[in-house]
């Protein structure tokens, strides 16, 4: 017999699956296997099976599970469960247990040198994994810890596998499993390091560098640490292998390359940038004006941005002439970066440096006109005022003719749009134009081959470095955690960080913790991040003032948004614009860096921008909130229908409510569930927003439409949203709504061990369903109530309610609901030692409208019937049931009737409208 733990816990006799039984029996088998032949005491088994206080007869239950396992093994001479030293030990051939085989293969591979043989052994070892390790054993603390240890072993084996392939010159072959593992373990530095190396082996240096820097930011954000030695060394190996950049015809200065935050820089980097001072002008004839140098004062305390400076250097030499556009949100440090780079590389531009701030300063918000800037530039280039051309075109031609043959840098700061920039571009080889803008200026990329360089917010470690430059190392070192929180609260914006640091510098006795606590208050944050002549709010106001009408309308309405992320459907609902226009308005906000485009149709509004939008909520049209709530309700209805095809809707739109114009269309269950996960924060916030805004009829409806995600993530803290929705339903005195919420909330509380609170809701649900005239809802409520009673040990009360539910379902003449109730009654009979009755109920359920039953439902019924037959010693009949169930289930059968991994929960799939849930006896 073969035992498999590296996936759902299972046993096989040849190719035939052996029915192990309920989750706790599978857990006992897993504990014996993991002990590798050593005896496991009953106390340890009891501790592993029950997180809370075990039942009175726990030892008897454990003995029953051991006895059942012995019964399964009695016909196999190669395996048995022996009693040794007061415990139980599994004796089996090493090759019969996948965990033992896995560990032996890994040991053999890692004892030798990495190479072809090691790679082959590790490939075989990793091939033994079949899914979620220790699946179907429950989620108790000790079983979860055991699963985590096995996952750690697999990750270590995967890293060795990548190392062996690297040694063979076949590193890219490991990329697929490595990237899959990284999605689940993004903070595991050793895994990132081998993935960086594999990407490098595949000649994907850009991807390798990007992965390193994403991990660097994530480590800083989540843990407040820098990458360790292994990851840093993998990164440095890439940098050492990159060819030096030829800067001809400019001076032979090395381009700064990105560097990790480790204390030592790669050997090929320059030791320090050029001094931040104006270059001495080259000697010139007496009648030749000196080269202009119009740069503003160098930014004080500039830190970080090593990678961005390197990218800027690369872009600055990429064209004839080169045109670089640094874009980013207000306060992100575009001007500081551009001016710092200009000072650093001033020696590369012997023809001079021209600078103009195109910031909007005119009363109409238009900013300086190109003609005026051209006149300033011409004067700086030596043209006296009386010779300045009056005609704009003539001035442009003279400007470009003066730049011919000269290496000049033209820095155009705070540009509004492409049209403002084009007349000021050099247009001749040898010169470089550097533009900064809050807008993306994609027009310059299309017509002038501009290199667009988006400037991202500072990672937390760099944000902390900004604080150090202003308030000193001592204060930051004394409160490192508070410093990291301050960086996060400032959204990684250098302007906000410097304003916070200035406030600290002016108040030596103010601790960083107190400052961070002050910034947590969203009502005060914007006012705290300002001083006498500038602030985050002022910079954001300017960005908003420059928006086109549709973008400005949408930004006003964002004050009403319930979350920080949105898509075009939510934007259309908020603004009242048609979907296509709302999508265009979102693009306008993204171009102005007021929202950040993530993937596809998803946009993020960072905290400070969100707070600024909400500070002007009085200017928003409050009807937008109602439209948004209706949008989320209709979208959740569509998602529920796709996630559980054939299920009866929990509710309809409230009377008189018009459906939204843009409702998502889902390709199937996976697509719908992905939408639920993405929108969860918005949906739960929408419940509270609806209740707060006086829309209880929307609050409870949105909450019940969350049920497909609730049943799959039951332990993820749904109680606050469901309690809020229940309060809204109670305020409406709507028994239908109350019944649904009591049933759903009660079930969630049951699954989370809050049995007393669960019963308070579940005992009300059936009567509320009667008041609502919903007999199928009453059946579901009784089933859920029975499940909670079983958890507190009231098997008699649970049985009474299951029998009542079955009788009521039969009277309804609704086959789906009747088969559901019979299934639960059969499971109860099996649990209390009445297998004959369980078989009768299962067969009755299987005969009810079989063509309408899902494969999952029939598999559950056949599995329960097989267990009952097995309990009566009718093994051949039981095997037939198990075989049919396995064929219908496809993947490993749900344990004890539970949908895969749902801890005792399965979906109704067309059941009563009272939540469409069924709770499975465990």
UniProtKB/TrEMBL annotation:
The keyword Transcription applies. This is SARP family transcriptional regulator. Keywords: DNA-binding, Transcription, Transcription regulation, Two-component regulatory system. SMART domains: BTAD, TPR, Trans_reg_C. InterPro entries: AfsR-DnrI-RedD_regulator (IPR051677), BTAD (IPR005158), OmpR/PhoB-type_DNA-bd (IPR001867), P-loop_NTPase (IPR027417), Sig_transdc_resp-reg_C-effctor (IPR016032), TPR-like_helical_dom_sf (IPR011990), TPR_rpt (IPR019734), WH-like_DNA-bd_sf (IPR036388). The lineage of its organism: Bacteria, Bacillati, Actinomycetota, Actinomycetes, Kitasatosporales. Residues 1-92 bind DNA. The keyword DNA-binding applies. Residues 243-299 are annotated as: Disordered.
């Amino acid at each position: 017999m073969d035992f498999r733990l590296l996936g759902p816990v299972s046993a096989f006799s040849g190719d035939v699956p052996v029915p192990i039984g309920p989750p706790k029996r599978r857990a006992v088998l897993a504990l014996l296997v993991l002990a590798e032949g050593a005896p496991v005491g009953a106390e340890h088994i009891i501790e592993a099976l029950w997180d809370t206080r075990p039942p009175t007869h726990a030892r008897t239950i454990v003995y029953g599970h051991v006895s059942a396992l012995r019964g399964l093994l009695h016909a196999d001479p190669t395996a048995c469960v022996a009693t040794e030293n007061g415990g139980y030990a599994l004796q089996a051939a090493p090759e019969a247990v996948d965990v033992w085989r896995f560990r032996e293969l890994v040991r053999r591979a890692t004892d030798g040198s990495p190479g072809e043989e090691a790679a082959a052994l590790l490939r075989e070892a990793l091939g033994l994994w079949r899914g979620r390790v220790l699946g179907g054993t429950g989620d108790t603390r000790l079983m979860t810890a055991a699963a985590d240890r096995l996952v750690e072993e697999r990750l270590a084996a995967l890293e060795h596998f990548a190392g062996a392939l690297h040694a063979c010159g076949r590193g890219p072959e490991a990329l697929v499993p490595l990237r899959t593992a990284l999605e689940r373990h993004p903070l595991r530095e050793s895994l990132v390091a081998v993935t960086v190396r594999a990407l490098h082996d595949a000649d994907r240096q850009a991807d390798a560098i990007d992965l390193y820097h994403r991990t660097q930011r994530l480590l800083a954000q989540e843990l407040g640490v820098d990458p360790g030695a292994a990851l840093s060394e993998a990164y440095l190996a890439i940098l050492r292998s990159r060819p030096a950049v030829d800067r001809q015809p400019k001076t032979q200065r090395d381009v700064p390359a990105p560097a990790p935050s480790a204390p030592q820089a790669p050997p090929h980097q320059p030791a320090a940038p050029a001094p931040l001072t104006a270059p001495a002008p080259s000697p010139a004839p007496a009648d030749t004006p000196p080269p202009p140098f119009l740069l503003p004062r160098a930014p004080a305390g500039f830190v970080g941005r090593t990678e961005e400076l390197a990218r800027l250097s690369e872009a600055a030499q990429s064209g004839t002439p080169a045109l670089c556009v640094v874009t980013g949100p207000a306060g992100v440090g575009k001007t500081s970066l551009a001016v710092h780079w200009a000072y650093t590389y001033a020696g590369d531009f012997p023809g001079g440096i021209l600078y103009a701030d195109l910031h909007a300063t005119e009363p109409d918000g238009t900013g300086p006109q190109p003609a005026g800037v051209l006149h300033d530039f011409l004067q700086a280039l030596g043209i006296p005022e009386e010779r300045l051309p009056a005609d704009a075109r003539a001035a442009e031609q003279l400007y470009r003719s003066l730049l011919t043959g000269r290496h000049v840098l033209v820095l155009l700061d705070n540009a509004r749009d492409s049209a403002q920039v084009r007349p000021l571009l050099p247009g001749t080889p040898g010169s470089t134009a550097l533009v900064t803008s809050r807008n993306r200026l994609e027009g310059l990329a299309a017509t002038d081959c501009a290199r667009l360089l988006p400037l991202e917010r500072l990672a937390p470690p760099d944000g902390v470095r900004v604080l150090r430059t202003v308030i000193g190392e001592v204060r930051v070192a004394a409160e490192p955690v508070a410093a990291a929180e301050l960086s996060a609260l400032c959204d990684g914006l250098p302007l906000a960080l410097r304003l916070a640091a200035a406030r600290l510098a002016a108040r030596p006795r103010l601790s960083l913790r107190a400052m961070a606590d002050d910034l947590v208050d969203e009502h005060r944050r914007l006012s705290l991040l300002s001083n006498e002549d500038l602030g985050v709010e002022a910079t954001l106001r300017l960005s908003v003032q420059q928006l086109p009408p549709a973008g400005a309308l949408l930004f006003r309405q964002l004050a009403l948004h319930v979350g920080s992320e949105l898509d075009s459907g939510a934007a259309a609902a908020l603004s009242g614009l048609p979907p296509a226009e709302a999508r265009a308005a979102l693009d306008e906000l993204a171009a102005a860096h007021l929202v950040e485009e993530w993937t596809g149709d998803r946009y993020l509004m960072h905290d400070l921008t969100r707070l600024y939008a909400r500070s002007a909520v009085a200017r928003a049209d409050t009807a937008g909130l109602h439209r948004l709530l209706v949008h989320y309700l209709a979208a959740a209805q569509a998602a529920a229908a796709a996630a559980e095809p054939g299920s009866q809707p929990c509710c309809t739109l409230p009377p008189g409510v018009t459906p939204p114009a843009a409702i998502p269309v889902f390709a199937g269950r996976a697509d719908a569930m992905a939408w639920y996960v993405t929108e969860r924060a918005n949906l739960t916030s929408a419940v509270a927003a609806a209740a707060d805004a006086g829309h209880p009829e929307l609050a409870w409806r949105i909450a019940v439409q969350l049920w497909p995600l609730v049943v799959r993530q039951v332990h993820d803290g749904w109680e606050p949203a469901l309690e809020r929705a229940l309060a809204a339903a109670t305020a409406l005195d709507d028994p239908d709504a109350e019944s649904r919420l009591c049933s759903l909330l009660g079930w969630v509380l049951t699954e989370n061990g809050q049995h007393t609170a669960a019963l308070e809701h579940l005992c009300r649900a059936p009567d509320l369903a009667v008041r609502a005239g919903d007999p199928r809802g009453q059946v579901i409520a009784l089933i859920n109530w029975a499940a909670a009673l079983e958890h507190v040990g009231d098997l008699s009360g649970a049985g009474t309610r299951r029998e009542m539910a079955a009788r009521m379902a039969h009277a309804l003449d609704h086959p789906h609901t009747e088969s559901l109730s019979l299934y639960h009654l059969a499971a109860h009979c099996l649990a209390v030692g009445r297998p004959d009755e369980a078989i009768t109920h299962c067969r009755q359920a299987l005969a009810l409208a079989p063509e309408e039953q899902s494969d999952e439902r029939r598999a559950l019924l056949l599995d329960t019937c097989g267990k009952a037959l097995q309990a009566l010693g009718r093994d051949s009949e039981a095997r037939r049931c198990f075989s049919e169930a396995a064929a219908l289930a496809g993947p490993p059968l749900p344990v004890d009737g539970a949908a895969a991994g749902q801890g005792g929960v399965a979906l109704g799939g067309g059941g009563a409208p009272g939540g469409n849930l069924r709770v499975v006896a465990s």
